Amino acid sequence: MTGPDEPAAxxxxxxxxxYRARGGWALxxxxxxxxxxxxxxxxxxxxxxxxxxxxxxxxxxxxxEGEIRALDSVPGTASARSRVALVTQDxxxxxxxxxxxxxxxxxxxxxxxxxxxxxxxxREGGIAPGARVGELSPGQRTRVALALALGKRPELxxxxxxxxxxxxxxxxEVMATLMTEAAERELSIVLSSHVLPExxxxxxxxxxxxxxxxxxxxxxxxLREDHLLVTGHADGAAALAGHDVVHRRTHxxxxxxxxxxxGPLDGDWHxxxxxxxxxxxxxxxxxxxxxxxxxxxx
Amino acid sequence: MKGSLWLAWRQQRVLVGCxxxxxxxxxxxxxxxxxxxLDALRGGxxxxxxxxxxxxxxxxxxxxxxxxxxxxxxxxxxxxxxxxLIGMFWGAPLLGRDRELGTHRMVLxxxxxxxxxxxxxxxxxxxxxxxxxxxxxxxxxxxxxxxADRSYGLFWYETTALSGSGPxxxxxxxxxxxxxxxxxxxxxxxxxxxxxTLSVTAATAFLVQWLHRSRLLVPPHRYVSxxxxxxxxxxxxxxxxxxxxxxxxxxxxxxxxxxxxxxPELKECMARHGYxxxxxxxxxxxxxxxxxxxxxxxxxxxxxxxTAATVVLLRRRV
Lengths: 298, 318
Prior knowledge:
The structure holds two protein chains of two kinds. In chain A, 34% of the residues lie in helices and 27% in strands. Chain A is of the alpha/beta class. In chain A, the strands form three sheets. In chain A, strands 5-6-7-3-8-9 form a six-stranded mixed beta sheet, sandwiched between helices. In chain A, strands 11-12-10-13 form a four-stranded antiparallel beta sheet. Chain A has a three-stranded antiparallel beta sheet with strand order 2-1-4, covered by helices on one side. Chain A starts with 7 loop residues before the first strand and ends with a helix. Residues 290-298 of chain A have low confidence and may be disordered. Chain B is 64% helix and 9% strand. Chain B has helices at 2-42, 70-101, 103-108, 114-144, 159-162, 167-187, 190-214, 263-273, 287-317; strands at residues 221-226, 238-247, 252-254, 275-283. In chain B, strand 2 (238-247) and strand 3 (252-254) form a beta hairpin. The model of chain B has no long low-confidence stretch (mean pLDDT 91). Chain A binds chain B through residues 55, 58-60, 76, 78, 81-82, 85-88, 90-95, 97, 101, 105-106, 108-111, 145, 148-149, 152, and chain B through 2-4, 6-7, 10-11, 101-114. Chain A: This is ABC transporter ATP-binding protein. Chain A: GO terms for molecular function: ATP binding; ATP hydrolysis activity. Chain A: Residues 10-236 form the ABC transporter domain. Chain A: InterPro entries: AAA+_ATPase, ABC_transporter-like_ATP-bd, ABC_transporter-like_CS, ABC_Transporter_VariousFunc, P-loop_NTPase.
C-alpha cells in the first residue's frame, strides 16, 4: 500500500460533487490515493460517478466539498494543466479542422509539446494529416484525440471510456499505443472502462466506484491474492461468517461466494483464485445487495 | 495567451473576412453615391432652397426636389440591424458552438485557462465588432454630411440617421455581441442561441426607437414667442407637432383656437381669448448628440452587464 508521503498520481479526501445545488450527489465522501506510475482502471456501473471524477481531476468541474489533487496540484491550476491530459468520453474535436490543424492547435495551446509523438500516433492509424476531423471514423477520431493528449507530454493521462465505440482490432491497437507510451516515460494513466477483460492484462491498480463512493482503491496483484472464490453446500454458509464476503449467490443447494478470507477457511469448500474480472464483477454486484440491505434497514 | 488568440483567430477568421468584405463593399458604394450627390449639389439645383423642413420645389414645375438618399438610408438600416446580425452570427456561436460540440472540454484540457480562452475569443470578436460598426457608422456620417439637415436630404432626427450613425451604433453592435455570447452560453445550441439573440436584440431596437419617439430621455424644448413677432423658425429642429397658445396666467391651450399663421387675424383672435404668447415644442439639432450619448450609455452599459453575467456563469456552467 502507499503511504501519504509517496507522490500520488491522483488523490482525494472527502470529495463530493453534485450537478445542481438541489440534485443528488454524483460523488460523496470519496477518499483514495492512486500512486504514480500506475495504469489504473476506473471501474463502476453507469452513473457511479466515473466521468464526474475524471472531469473533477481534469479541472473541468470544481468539487462541491472536499478536495482532489492531480499530481499533488489542484486541478485547473497552471501547474496541473501543463502536466495532466484529459480525453473525455465524447472525444470532442473541431470537426472542420484538419488533423494537422488539430495538432497545430495542441502545439499552440500547450507550453511543452512534442510533435513527434502525436504525429506517430496519427500515422500509425493511417490518418492523412490533411483529412478533416469531421470526416474521420470514430476510431480515427479517438486516435486524434489521444494524439492531442499525448502530444503535451503529460505525466498523468485521464481517459474516459477511451475504448467505447471502437472495434476489437482498433481497441487492441489503441491500448498498445498507450502501453508503449506508459512504458517509455513516466506516465500515469487513469482510464475508465466497461470492458473488464481488456483491463485484466493492462491495469495494475483498480479504483472502483459504486453509487458515488469509493468501493476499492487497490493494487490488482493484491486483489488477486486476497480474494477467493468458494463453492460448496448452502448449509455450510455459517462457516463464512468470519470472513469478508463480497458477494454470494445461491443456486439450489449450491452456494458460490467471493470473499476475502480472514484466516483459514473452515468446512468443505471448493476453492479457486478468481480472475480480476470476477473480483470486480463481485464487487460491483455486491454493491447491489448492500444497497438493498440498507434500504430494508432504513 | 498567444495560443488561445491563435485559436480564436483560427475560428473567427471567416467572420473577420466577411466583416472586411462588407466594409469594402459599403465603402465603395458610399464613395460612388456620395460623389453623385456632391455633383448634384455642385450643379446649383438646390441653391435656392431654404434650410427649413419644408420641401424645396423645382421652379419650372413646382415638384419637390430630393437628393438620391435612398442608398444612404439603406446603409442606415444596415447599421440599425448590426446588433441583430453581429449578435446572431458572431455572438451566438462564440460560446454556443463549443457548448454544442462539447469542444470547450477539449480546449480547457489543454494548457490554457478558462479565463484566457474566453478573453481571447471575446476580445477578437469585440475588436471585429468595433471595427465593423465604427467604420460603417463613420461611412454613414461622411456620406450624410453634405445632405445633413436639408429638406432635400436627411434630417438628424430621422431613424436611419439618429440610430444608424454615431457612437451609439458601436455601442448597439457590442450589445448585440454580448447578447449573443450569453445566449450561446445558456442555450447550448447555436440555433437556439441565434433565435434568442434575434428576439432580444430586435426587441431592444424597437424599445430604443420608442424611447426616441416618446422623447422620454431627451425631452423637447418649449419655444415661446409673442404673437406680435414672427416665431423662431423650425429650421432643423425636431418638432413634436405640439403647438399652442399661452394665456396671461400661463395656461397652454390648443393652437386650433386661433388657427392663423400671423397677421391681424391672429392678433385679434389672441386678444379675444386673452392669449399673450405662442409656443411650440421641439428638440434642437444639438440633441442629436444628447440622444447619441444616452443610447451609447444605455446599450454600452447593458453590454458590460451582460458580459459580466457571462463571466460569472462561465465559471459555473463550463
